[in-house]
UniProtKB/TrEMBL annotation:
Gene3D superfamilies: Dihydrodipicolinate Reductase, domain 2 (3.30.360.10), NAD(P)-binding Rossmann-like Domain (3.40.50.720). One of its GO terms (biological process) is inositol biosynthetic process. Residues 199-307 form the Myo-inositol-1-phosphate synthase GAPDH-like domain. GO terms for molecular function: inositol-3-phosphate synthase activity. It comes from the Bacteria. SUPFAM superfamilies: Glyceraldehyde-3-phosphate dehydrogenase-like, C-terminal domain, NAD(P)-binding Rossmann-fold domains. This is Inositol-3-phosphate synthase. InterPro entries: MIPS, Myo-inos-1-P_Synthase_GAPDH, NAD(P)-bd_dom_sf.
Amino acid sequence: MDTHFVRVGIIGVGNCARALLEGTAYYRATPDLTAGLMFPKVGPYGAGALDPVAAWDVDVEKVGKDLWTARASGQNLDVGIPQGDLLPIGTDVRVQRAPTLDGAGRKYQERITLADSDTGDERAAVIEQIRAARVDVLLNYLPVGSQEATEWWADVALEAGVGFVNNVPVFIARKDEWRERFRAAGLPLIGDDIKSQLGATYLHRVLVRAFSDRGIRLDRTYQLNVGGNMDFYNMLERDRLESKRESKTSAVTDAYSGELADEDVHIGPSDYVRFLGDTKKAFIRCEGRGFGGAPIDMEIQLTVPDSPNSAGVVIDAARIAKLAMDRGDTAVDEWVSAWLFKAPPRAVAQESDQVARERLGTWMSGTGTSGIA
């Protein structure tokens, strides 16, 4: 049983938040189980260490409910985690009304009804909620395309004095000005855009890195993704996808040592297929030339549970953020971001996943510093 906890605030109680809550409850119920975990322990923090103490959403079917009930409300789907032995967590946490800003797009609002919002000072109220709950780390789960809202929450995290894990494809951790502000405050900023535990981006990076390492010229590549949850439905609003496409594309091309013309790379979400539910299917193709110019074509189809694939990474990011705060060494956030996220700071973006994981592992073991000035 964990005796050290990470107090987290959850921004957006969607499918990914549901998977994180149920996964945390799952590992609390089976503390000796390590299957499905990259890091069973992060310093003193076990896999059941996340303690949700605050949450925000805009959906009338979630706002005002306790967090455990809200996780299965509205458009949220079954994420495939066995429910039998789970002890509910977050039952004493009421989901608060979040500012909408640009966080609820046109397609999103076809499926949900916005809860009534307060007319007072939302910023001051949210900061007070964070402080009253004694949050350590905020976890951003806003929908794709929430540029203004993500920046608003990052700024709130700074003022409230808490860490910020940006799971969505809005560039915060990648930008020098944001990173410098968090570094000056002694707070971890980790992101951007979660790289799922064994998702299309990670697998695609492994493939193009293999082409480089084995001397194969990569001529062109694509990655197409379909799914049936609200994330994919929201992404039918194509105007919200610019940063998502940039994040996914750069994550793959950064792993290839050669040059690829823009017209020879196509990576991004492709369509919404409702009956898939929380299952995601990815189709990856790589075309290249090997010894003597001989053609090499590779096609892979990946089928994964979308939300648990994300939660298996966020559970590490949150614990590492808290350990960095405990140690007063928040510069490690760059290596965390390189290992766990698609769009880390540019200084580490082209490092291999293996190097990033080794640097992070060394730091977590206490045998080295972050190594970043």
